[in-house]
Structures are given as C-alpha cells and as structure tokens.
Amino acid sequence: MKRDISSNHPLRHYFVEALHDTFSGEPNIDSSDDIEAYLSEMLVNFLDVENLYGIRDPFGQTVESVTEMMLEGDIRYNANSFEREREVHRHIGDFLLFWSGLFPEFLIQMKAPGSKDVLLDPVRQGQFSYHVVSTFEHGAYAHEAPIFKKLSDEFENYRYGLNLVRASFEGFARQGWTDGFQA
C-alpha cells in the first residue's frame, strides 16, 4: 500500500530545487517543469521504502526483483487489468531510473550471480517500461503520456541528471551539513 509523504515535507522543496538547479545547467537534459515535478515527486515518494518496494503480488507479498515486477505488470501473466499493467510499468521505470541514476552501484548487486535480475538490462527495461506507460494516451492518463514518452526517449539523460543530483547531495554532505543544520 502506497504511503504518501506530506505536502509540506522539507525534502520536497529540496528535491525540486536540486533537480531544477542541476537540470537547468545541462544542455542535454530537458528541464521542463513537468519532468522536474514528476522526478521530484518520485524522489519524495521513494523516501519511504514501502513506496520504493510498493509492488505487491496477488498474495500481498512485496515484489523486490524487477523480473518478478515485469510478470506482475504483464496482462498475459499476473496483471488483472490494463491499469495494473500501467501502474507496474510506471513503478519499474521509476525504480530503475532511481537506482541507476542515484545509486548505480546497486545495479551491480542487482546483476550479481544468483539474482533473479542477472540478465536484465536496467536501462533498456526502464526505457521500455516508461514506453508502455506512455502508450496510455487517452482518458485520465492523456495528460501524463507525454511525460513518460520523454522519460522513455531520454532515459539515459535523466539517469545522468540524477547522478549529478547525487553529486550535489554528496557535496552538500561534505560541506558539513547534517539533518539540515550546519555543523
């Protein structure tokens, strides 16, 4: 069950600024308001591990591997509706963009021998999952479809941008800041 982070959470404002400052200085990254808003919301949502691992199987168990998530999001296997397919593919795209952009070292663990994701190409799967979401172009999802098309088409650039945001976090930490207060 997805848990929401409050609208006045202090990190919400920080992520908006960090993304804007980072993206606006990079010519290869689309720094449009819709993308920045979407990505900052993703970062805020993933503050809660319940949201990061928010996909559940039909028995309510957390699905942690991307390979299993793909089965949950496939209408031919476990998805019981096209809305479920969209929801899971959106999560897969977000999950892979988050990990590959902010914590690329996680991909080594993901592809380690014995992992269910060992054969997975996280960039291609992230692009594909966002592409699936972008095909929901009608009704309630019409206004979001262009955002997911951009995320799919420019996945590598946004991944790079999130890596730059991470570098800004690390620079922030090196300056002696802890929990929002200067030491």
Number of strands: 2
User: Spans with pLDDT under 50 lasting ≥5 residues?
Assistant: 174-183
**Main structural class:** mainly alpha
The rounded distance between the terminal residues' Cα atoms is 37 Å
Q: Can you give the helix content as a percent range? A: 55-70%
Q: Beta fraction of the residues?
A: under 5%
User: What's the number of domains?
Assistant: 1
Helix count, DSSP H or I runs of 4 or more residues: 9
H/E series, N to C? HHHHHHHHHEE
Rg from Cα: 17 Å
Summed over residues and divided by their number, the pLDDT gives a mean of: 88
**Overall body shape:** globular
Strands of the largest sheet, in order across it?
1-2
Major beta-sheet overview: 2 strands, antiparallel
In short:
With 183 residues, this protein is mostly helical.
Fold topology:
Elements: H1 10-24, H2 33-45, H3 49-52, H4 66-72, H5 82-102, H6 105-110, H7 122-134, H8 145-153, H9 155-174, E1 177-178, E2 181-182
Antiparallel strand pairs: 1-2
Helix pairs in contact: 1-2, 1-9, 4-5, 5-7, 5-9, 7-8
Task: Explain what you see.
This protein has 183 residues and is mainly α. The protein has one domain. It contains nine helices and two strands. A two-stranded antiparallel ribbon has the order 1-2. A hairpin with a 2-residue loop joins strand 1 and strand 2. It is globular.
Keywords:
globular, mainly alpha, single chain, two-stranded antiparallel ribbon
